[in-house]
Amino acid sequence: MSGVVRSLSRCLLPAEASPDPGSGKDRDRRWEKENQQEAAKREREAKRRSREIDAMLARERRAVRRLVKILLLGAGESGKSTFLKQMRIINGHEFDQKALLDFRDTIYDNILKGMRVLVDARDKLGISWQRCENEKQGMLVMSWEGRVGTTGVEPGEFQLYVMALSALWADTGIQEAYCRRSEFQLIQGPSE
C-alpha cells in the first residue's frame, strides 16, 4: 500500500515539487558547464588583450630604434637652444601657439634685461645722456626686477616699460654704449 501512495503522490505533486533523484546532479553539471564556458571566454579575451599589448610594445620598440638622441653640451648663451629651434624649423615642424606665446614672453624678458645692461654700461663707460629726462627712464628700467624662477615677462608688465624703452633706445648715449658692446657682456639671444 505504501508503494501505491508513493506512486499517487508523485502523480499528484507539481513537477518542481516532485523529488527527482537526478535533478541536483543535472543542476551541478549545468553550473559547471556554464562556469567552464565563462572561464574559456575570459581566457580568450585575456589572450586577445595580450596580443594587442605585444603588438603595441613591438611598434614602440621599432620607433625607439629609429629615435636619435643627442646631448648638447656648452656654456650658457652658446646657442644650444637656438640650434634645436633651427633644426625644428629646417625639418618643417611648426611651433604651436603655446610655444609662440612662450617665445614672446622670453623676447620681452630679453629686451628688458638688455636695456638694463646698456643703461648700466653707459654709466660705467662714462657716456652722458643725450636728454636729461632719459635718466628717469633709465632708473625706471633699472628698477625692473625679473621674477625668480620665471622665463619671461607677461605682456601687461612689458607695456609698463614700452615708452621708457623707446625713449632710451632713441638716446645717443644708449646707442654709443651699444656700439661699444664688445667692452661688456650683452646677451644676444634667448635665455637658456
Automatic annotation (TrEMBL):
Region (Disordered) residue spans: 1-50
Binding site for GTP: 77-82
Matching PROSITE patterns: G_ALPHA
InterPro entries: Gprotein_alpha_12/13, Gprotein_alpha_su, GproteinA_insert, P-loop_NTPase
UniProt GO MF annotations: D5 dopamine receptor binding; G-protein beta/gamma-subunit complex binding; GTP binding; GTPase activity; metal ion binding
One Pfam family cited in the UniProt record for this chain: G-alpha
Ligand binding (Mg(2+)): 81
Keywords: GTP-binding, Magnesium, Metal-binding, Nucleotide-binding, Transducer
Ranges of compositional bias, category Basic and acidic residues: 23-50
GO cellular component: brush border membrane; cytoplasm; heterotrimeric G-protein complex
GO-annotated biological processes: adenylate cyclase-modulating G protein-coupled receptor signaling pathway; Rho protein signal transduction
SUPFAM superfamilies linked: P-loop containing nucleoside triphosphate hydrolases, Transducin (alpha subunit), insertion domain
Superkingdom per UniProt: Eukaryota
Family: Belongs to the G-alpha family. G(12) subfamily.
Protein name (database record): Guanine nucleotide-binding protein subunit alpha-12
